């Protein structure tokens, strides 16, 4: 592994699945597990130092996003790992901190998801939204705002786009890998 992209912390180094693309300007540190066909785009910072980060298959994390975790403490003995499911699109310049995301989610550009928040499967989060700590977003809805509010059920076309977005990024990632 290229030491400029991957760093150990407490002798734990990020683990990558098959056919993963990590842009050379991104940095992954510590206890991070990345599934197959994942893409990590320019300037992503992922720090699995005081807890773990897990990223599911076919997920894409776009430019300038920060991924971090919450440390274990007396008041929170397990802390908050960052868990991102499969077929998730994380837009540009997002902040995901110690939260859990299910499958087939689109996190709009500039969104912030705080510690202990749970995003169920099949959710759209609008650009610039703020998901407060420990908030749960129910499956099948569009959410927007600061703080975030449930707006409406997803349309069929939007539901289909959640998977299509992941497929689009797998294809783009494959083009980048072919050029290396």
From TrEMBL:
Short name of any one Pfam family annotated for the protein: Hexapep_2
InterPro entries: Hexapep, LbH_gamma_CA-like, Transf_Hexapept/Carb_Anhydrase, Trimer_LpxA-like_sf
CDD domains linked: LbH_gamma_CA_like
Protein name (database record): Gamma carbonic anhydrase family protein
């Amino acid at each position: 592994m290229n030491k400029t992209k991957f760093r150990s912390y407490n002798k734990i180094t990020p683990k990558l699945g098959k056919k993963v693309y990590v842009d050379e300007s991104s940095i992954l540190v510590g206890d991070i597990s990345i599934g197959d066909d994942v893409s990590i785009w320019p300037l992503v910072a992922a720090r699995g130092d005081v807890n773990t980060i897990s990223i599911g298959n076919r997920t894409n994390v776009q430019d300038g996003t920060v991924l971090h975790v919450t440390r274990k403490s007396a008041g929170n003995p397990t802390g908050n790992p960052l868990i991102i499911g499969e077929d998730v699109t994380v837009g540009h310049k997002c902040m995901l901190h110690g939260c859990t995301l299910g499958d087939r989610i689109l996190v709009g550009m500039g969104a912030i998801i705080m510690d202990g928040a749970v995003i169920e499967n099949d959710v759209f989060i609008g650009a610039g939204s703020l998901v407060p700590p420990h908030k749960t977003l129910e499956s099948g809805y569009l959410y927007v705002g600061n703080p975030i509010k449930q707006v409406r059920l997803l349309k069929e076309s939007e539901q289909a786009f959640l998977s299509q977005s992941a497929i689009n990024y797998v294809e783009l990632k494959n083009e980048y890998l072919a050029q290396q």
